[in-house]
Amino acid sequence: MAMVGLFWIGEDSVHLGAEPVGAAPGVRLTEDGVAVVGVDGGRFWAWDEVDRIETHDVPVRSGVRRLASMAFDAALVAVTGDGELPPAFTVEVAAAGETVLADAHAAVTGGIYLPSEYELSTALLRRLADGGADVADLLAWGREHAAEGTPAREEREALLRKWAGL
């Protein structure tokens, strides 16, 4: 699997943040619609029912601040031996007359996203919700490239621009 912005892309699935394991919460995007798992037994909406997908409390920092945070976290783990789960953020799905909040865990190294990738990711989410973009494009890329791992920042940003039609 590969991380491109907020999207964890595999050969057959796209998740916002890390792919949930077991009963963990998360949001999965498919060609058919949006699935929220771990909330009230799970929910699913077809794309024509989705009005909005937004993210809240996503850890975003500039490159320098991101590296400093990662170094501090690594030093803390080395000294204390305590590690923690990556930071969580909230995904808000408004669809079929209801709004559901779900937690997702950051899957990017260090748990902190760069502002450029975050902004492009939210633009892509808006386009997916309004029908201007298609998850099939992300899945097609995943089938061809996800096994190679996460691409370099410039390529990630170019992919997000392409998928969002920017």
Q: Which short descriptors sum up this protein?
A:
166 residues, 6-stranded antiparallel beta sheet, 3-stranded antiparallel beta sheet
Care to describe what's here?
The chain has helices at residues 63-80, 115-129, 135-145, 153-164, and strands at residues 2-4, 7-9, 14-16, 26-29, 33-37, 43-46, 50-56, 88-95, 98-105. The chain has 166 residues and is an alpha+beta fold. It has 4 helices and 9 strands. Strands 1-2-3-4-5-6 form a 6-stranded antiparallel beta sheet. Strands 7-8-9 form a 3-stranded antiparallel beta sheet. It is globular and about 40 Å long. Helix 2 runs parallel beside helix 4. Residues 63-82 have low confidence and may be disordered.
Short description:
The chain has 166 residues and is an alpha+beta fold. The chain is 34% helix and 27% strand.
Task: Give the overall form.
Answer: globular
- Topology order in helix (H) and strand (E) letters: EEEEEEEHEEHHH
Proportion in helices:
25-40%
Q: Helices and strands: which structural class? A: alpha+beta
Q: Averaging pLDDT over every residue, what do you get?
A: 85
Multimer state: single chain
Largest sheet entry: 6 strands, antiparallel
Strand arrangement within the widest β-sheet reads: 1-2-3-4-5-6
Q: Calculate Rg over CA atoms.
A: 16 Å
